[in-house]
Design a protein that fits this description.
- This protein has nine helices and eleven strands.
- α2 crosses α9.
- The strands form two sheets. A nine-stranded mixed β-sheet has the order 1-9-8-7-6-4-5-3-2, with helices on both faces.
- It has a single domain, classed as Alpha/Beta hydrolase fold, catalytic domain (Rossmann fold), CATH 3.40.50.1820.
- The chain is α/β, with parallel strands linked by helices.
- It is globular.
Amino acid sequence: MPLVDSPFRPAWWLPGPHAQTLWAALARRAPRPPLRWEELELPDGDFLELAHVDRPVPDDAPTALVLHGLAGSVHSPHVAGVIDALSHRGWRTVAFHFRGCGRKPNRSVIGYHSGKTDDPRFVLQTLRERHGGPLALVGFSLGANVTLKLLGEDGADSVVDVAAAVSPPLQLDRCADRMERGLSQFYQRALLRDLGTYVRDKAQAGVDLDPAVLDRIHTFRDFDDLVTAPAHGFVDSADYYARASCRPFLADIAVPTLVIHAHDDPFFTRDVVPGAGEVPENVRFELAPSGGHVGFVEGSVPLRGHYHADQRIPDFLEEALARR
């Protein structure tokens, strides 16, 4: 069945969602693979940045494009971990940066959001033209939502051969609700600080954004009403959440896809998990009782964690390609 119990088993010394989430984000010693940076010009005159793992690969090596989460980059521990793991298995591996999330601000008021699929689609098409061969798409958190939405939008016409998504929001309105309650407010405050820096950097670079609006922002809904929606053509945050959430697109995904998700994710409520009838047979939705948000730390030795996604994602991608 598409919805299955996850093989993930949490480290006993990291009980609960917050320990899993915070350890993976703050305490993990992530690998630092050698990188080659590229500024890729976009059709609308803006640009985004790609970080290629700079290791030799065969000409016919499969290619993986990896999407980070909100306010993330190639230096996010989970991104660094999976690109390093894929690279060591012989993959040509590229970390995608949403506009303005690389080494410098982008040129336009347009930035990125949970439903912005046109930029990664353009990069995927570029990589297909450059390299040919199998092509995979991997996303974390916001990038996981973008991954699943893109796959559903493109259906059987997708240039992607296999995919994986870790901790996708699935329903953005429920995510916004959850982040305004309990300890989840800690994550909201931290991410809003990062988003504030993103807006100020763009304004200082000459982009037509007024950083004074940040004084009125206290929640994700505020940010999406005052920044995301007007910059990207949505009526308001409710319109954005309805149109950008990936859950309605799951049924149209046509390529082998792995979803790694935890019931105790502190960014979401449990009811974001789709029913079995919403998930097509080619999507394997692995649901764990615990694991936090992009946590999934395993290991029996205290303070020495292993990271489930670094092993599970390459295994799934390679098994799916072998079946094809």
